[in-house]
Amino acid sequence: MMTEKEGQREDRQARPLSPCILICTLDDDKCCLGCGRTLAQISGWALMSVAEQWSVIDDLRARRPENDVTIAAEDGD
């Protein structure tokens, strides 16, 4: 499925890029202050399916749309 957002296309069949923005500091709830992922999401990212990774991206966008830095996918990580 392709979606259109601000003129950018997303290929939901390919892995999204990691949302990491290299500000890797956890808050008291074990959520990263940089990307917003939980510690479990960070540690499990590479083992997640494509659908699971996109689900994390969607959750992050819903919670923190002003920090939307993930766009498309290449090989993922």
Structure, explained:
Strands 1-2 form a two-stranded antiparallel sheet. The chain has 77 residues and is an alpha+beta fold. It has a domain at 21-69. The chain contains two helices and two strands, in the order E-E-H-H. The longest helix has 14 residues, at 50-63. A hairpin with a 2-residue loop joins strand 1 (2-5) and strand 2 (8-11).
Give a short overview.
The protein has a two-stranded antiparallel ribbon. Helix content is 26%, strand content 10%. The chain has helices spanning 39-44, 50-63, and strands at residues 2-5, 8-11.
Reconstruct the topology from this structure.
Layout: E1 2-5, E2 8-11, H1 39-44, H2 50-63
List keywords for this structure.
10% strand, alpha+beta, 77 residues, 2 helices
Tell me the fraction of residues in β-strands, as a range. Answer: 5-15%
The SSE order reads: EEHH
N→C terminal distance: 21 Å
The coarse silhouette is globular
Q: Supply Rg.
A: 12 Å
What order do the strands of the largest sheet run in, or round the barrel if closed?
Answer: 1-2
Number of strands: 2
Catalogue the unreliable spans.
Answer: 70-74
Q: How many distinct helices?
A: 2
Summarize the main sheet: 2 strands, antiparallel
Mean pLDDT: 81
- Please estimate the helix content: 25-40%
Structural class, by secondary structure, is alpha+beta
